[in-house]
Write a structure and sequence with these properties.
Length: 376
């Protein structure tokens, strides 16, 4: 069995190679490398796919979060609530802008922001909530939006791992991940469900005025060249990345369905053991499985990883250290008793390979290896 990686970008590329190569060459030949036609076309196509009024492409997902908070006019010391169990980019930009991050625990079954913890964390200084749609499914947005409305808070969705996921409201209406809050953000990092061949990101909003401001911020605060109306940054999606994304966007739903089938295979294989807790999908959202994350019950995680590695099977830990215990974000305000779920997850989660190019014999090999170890 050849080595099995967490993602198979080369295999995915081979299936769209001719289209991708042609699109990249077209950009090079036309030399419209920044804000060229490919960027504008991708913007419109993603707006149509998401059903959102405005997509603002930018350089990466971290910039997307930072620019979103800049556009909302948050001020020094304003509190922004987000999940403790996620990648550091979410809290990183809060700190960079000299805002006050407020980290809270997550739900045990979905790994997404805990609604009761959210309610308890709100103070007079709270100005925004950043729900992270972790591993591929949406947070409880109906509850989050209701809380935001009650306390007059902004909602910035971090949809970097969940683009393509659908959220269903109680009234039966549906919206795509990233399109429900005041602003949504995503990343096009190569391993994402919709990934480019470098760095890339985007910001979403249905607010016309916010969209105008966001478009200025990403381009040095300029609406007219050399006239700087707002404080901005340099964060533009380059045309080559947009060209790649234009080819991949029509395949996004197929990619997400392929990941779902892998997850279903894993779930079926692991139902026979109580040593593994398989991912739970909330009733109000679809799951696009950016990651397939198990919770280990009484299993030596390090030994399992080594066992899989010896069999040329990759695995990963998302995430080994809670954000509130990271050196950069340690704060005396935090109480360990408020992070019981996150602390436990960081000790017990393990993610298996999941991507769009699996063959059944590879999945059989992975599941048999995992079961052989946990049942030994």
């Amino acid at each position: 069995m050849k080595p099995i990686q967490m993602v198979d970008l080369k295999g995915q590329y081979q299936n769209i190679k001719e289209q991708v190569d042609k699109s990249i060459l077209n950009v090079i030949e036309n030399t419209a490398f920044i804000n060229g036609p490919e960027v504008k076309s991708f913007q419109k196509e993603l707006e149509e796919y998401l059903g959102v009024k405005h997509v603002i492409p930018c350089a990466n997902g971290t910039d997307a979060l930072q620019i979103a908070m800049m556009a909302l006019g948050l001020e020094l010391g304003d509190e922004v609530i987000t999940a403790d169990f996620t990648f550091a980019a979410t809290v990183e930009v809060i700190a960079l802008l000299k805002l006050t991050p407020v980290l809270i625990d997550v739900e045990k079954d979905t790994f997404n922001i805990d609604i009761e913890a959210l309610k308890k964390a709100i103070t007079p200084n709270t100005k925004a909530i950043i729900p992270v749609h972790l591993f591929g499914q949406c947070s409880n947005m109906e509850a989050i939006l209701a809380i935001a409305k009650e306390y007059n808070l902004y909602v910035i969705e971090d949809a970097a791992q969940a683009i393509g996921a659908d959220y269903t409201f109680v009234d039966g209406s549906t919206k795509k991940a990233g399109t429900m809050g005041d602003i949504g953000t995503t990343s096009f990092f190569p391993s994402k469900n919709l990934g480019c061949y470098g760095d890339g990101g985007a910001i979403f909003t249905n607010d016309d005025d916010l969209a105008v401001l966001l478009r200025g911020i990403i381009n040095h605060g300029m609406y007219k060249r050399y006239y700087h109306d707002v404080v901005g940054v340099n964060s533009r999606l380059d045309s080559i990345q947009a060209a790649v994304l234009r080819i991949k966007l029509p395949h996004l739903d197929t990619y997400c369905n392929a990941r779902l089938k892998v997850a279903e295979y894993y779930n079926t294989a692991f139902v026979s053991t109580d040593k593994l807790t398989t991912p739970i999908t909330s009733s109000f959202t679809t799951h696009v499985f950016h990651q397939y994350t198990l919770v280990l019950n009484g299993v030596d995680r390090g030994a399992l990883q080594q066992y899989l590695s010896d069999k040329n099977i990759a695995s990963a830990i998302y995430y080994p250290v809670p954000l509130h215990n990271q050196k950069a974000y340690i704060d005396d305000r935090y109480n360990e008793d408020d992070f019981t779920i996150t602390n436990e997850l960081c000790k017990t989660v393990i993610s298996l390979p999941i991507h769009t190019e699996f063959e059944e014999n590879q999945l059989k090999y992975i599941t048999e290896a995992v079961l052989s170890f946990v049942n030994s």
